[in-house]
Amino acid sequence: MSDNIEEGYVSYLEYKGKYKGILSWLLSTDHKKIGLMYLYAIIVFFFVAAFLGLLMRIEKLAPGPTIMEAQTYNGIFTIHGVIMIFIIVIPGISAIFGNFFLPVMIGARDVAFPRLNLLSWYLYMIGAILGVLSQFAGDGPPDTGWTFYVPYSAQSATNVIYALTAAFILGFSSILTGLNFIVTIHRMRAPGMGWFRMPLFPWSLYATAWIQVLATPIVGITLLMVIAERTLNIGFFDPALGGDPLLFQHLFWIYSHPAVYIMILPAMGIVTEIFPTFSQKPIFGYGAIVISSIAIAAVGYFVWGHHMFTSGMSYWSRWFFSFLTFIVAIPSAIKVFNWVSTMYGGSIDLKPPLLYAISFIFLFMIGGFTGLALGSLATNVHLHDTDFVVAHFHYIIFGGMGFAFFAGIHYWYPKMFGRMYSNRIANIAWVILFAGFNLLYFPLFIIGIQGMPRRYFDYLPQYTMGQVISSIGAFILIAGLILMVWNLVYHRRRGAIAPANPWNGVTLEWLIPSPPPHENFDEIPEIKTKPYLFTRTKND
Amino acid sequence: MSRSHTHTEPVDHEAGKIGMWLFLFTELFLFGGLFLVYAVFRSQYTDSFHTAAAELNAFVGTLNTVVLLVSSMTIAMSLTAVRKRQTTRALILITATLALAAFFMVNKYFEWSYKFHYDLYPGSAVMKNLEHGVILFYGLYYMMTGLHALHVIIGMVLLTVVLMKVKIGAINADNFLLLENGALYWHLVDLIWIFLFPLLYLVT
Lengths: 540, 204
Fold this sequence. Notes:
The complex is a heterodimer of chains A (540) and B (204).
Chain A: H1 23-26, H2 31-59, H3 70-89, H4 92-105, H5 114-136, H6 152-155, H7 160-187, H8 200-232, H9 245-279, H10 286-299, H11 315-343, H12 352-375, H13 377-383, H14 387-417, H15 423-449, H16 464-494
Helix pairs in contact in A: 2-3, 2-4, 2-5, 2-16, 3-5, 3-7, 4-7, 4-8, 4-14, 5-7, 7-8, 8-9, 8-10, 9-11, 9-12, 9-14, 10-11, 11-12, 12-14, 12-15, 14-15, 15-16
Chain B: H1 13-44, H2 46-54, H3 58-83, H4 87-117, H5 125-128, H6 132-167, H7 177-201
Helix pairs in contact in B: 1-6, 1-7, 2-6, 3-4, 3-7, 4-6, 6-7
């Protein structure tokens, strides 16, 4: 049925609204166009931040100053972190794929508050531009690291306020998106779509949205307190005035640890969609995946202390946070088990989206296990603030969220743009990316264990081997990224016309034409079964 | 099917209310961070907090509490009036709410400027020589009442828009979501003050 879409419908890309030209995008409340506007913005910022990352790796090609001074390096790793975390990884999947596919997958015509959705995008852009500006304007780039630890962030003479304000505004945008998604999921599911008939990507967005709504205000007020500290001499975090710098760390991580789950939950949601489709088999353990998403969101609130084992906490607090850190690993492991079991016995079709999804599992597992090494009290003392942490973090965020994002873009690209990319180039790009990624980050585990501290622009000669291999990996990774993005950009207008359902998916987005019409559905479908039942076949 | 082809904001009263409640929760968490900081320093510097709080004028605080409580009542009454189609009464009640809010702000202004007169503000020469607990108490006092005052101002802007819309009939007995959400927001402003008042003025 899916190949016989009627000709002559108007897709959302060609839809003529009230406004023409660029305004038809900038003033559009269509969730699909807003999703694409996020996509384009995030790609631009991603290349800026990736370039900064490359500069850091070039600096580390040899000991001593190579291409920059220490202070420049401090600014670059700070802005690399701020852009990557607050502008790309936290909003990324929710804002792009969430906006585009949440309404479609639950059978709605738009999100609950379309105009609020557009406002979120504008807030996002203001915050993002402010964040990038902090690198160039005023008194020099902020040099505090993305964590803004006091007392240094209260004293540094650089543009810290720009970066703090940017993070605050981006947080507000993130709250509004989360709020919108919660209401959308509660109120706008298609008739017959009970909670447990909802596909799993919307479920992961639901869990994420609650974290966005409940955790982000805490970092909002914390950043405001640092701004007040800098401008008004308030002194909450200043020991000279009776304040306590540790209090900042607690408040910061109460948000910023759950934020890690804002990053990874939607990523898990994407691969959960991909495994059933490319195995042509129902997802294994639907209920377990739903419950583990909720469990991750809930337990994830109570593990923030594991960032502070060496900062000064009582023995029992450390014991408690370490224990919970191990607990929170269990739901993630359940999901891995489910994904692998979904593939077992399925008719596997190794297309690019599945390649990325499988490598997601591989990289995410390395990131997850090394996370447990960091979560144990004894090893943490040795590994704290070394390159081991940097490697762990990048395996989770880039290997996890990043590769899931790439999986998602290859999975949904035909639906979003109505064109096919070249599978061959996508596969080659995947090989380069995967090799470059491991070459870049794996050596950091080793030199981290040997004692290489993070955030240093210089290193002792004994780490040269690891640093150089890592820098070579960075060039390979960037080459893979460029090839992957080129493949997608080039085929945006020149690729073969995509059918409505190129992968034989069964969730609702594959029942409508590619690209979808302005209002998604002519008639809102009625849901009569659980999701992921592969009863329809190619010959239907 | 005519509705389905225009891309307008769906009028879903229930959705609008859920959205507002979620937003109010985020506001509570925002202030929650400050309450947490208050709790930490209060337990650390119990005595200084008592002496510092004694400096605040409990009468002005009580007056402002009463003012905000009454304004909460008037905005709730305006909602009932709109639902009963008594537009004039609703307009009077919303205006009364705005007047009470303005009174609150004027009061706040005098309270703050009185303290500034005695150099009791963060970073001042007097403040530097005070005990740590007192400095932190005043830091919290300015930060909490300041953030609250900002919310009062935002609430006033919101209620002014509501007032205009009631006047032109855009808010009426069949469509009063904005008024209801505005009232909810105003109740939040009131509620936060109900917690700030004892914590800052009555702890002595």
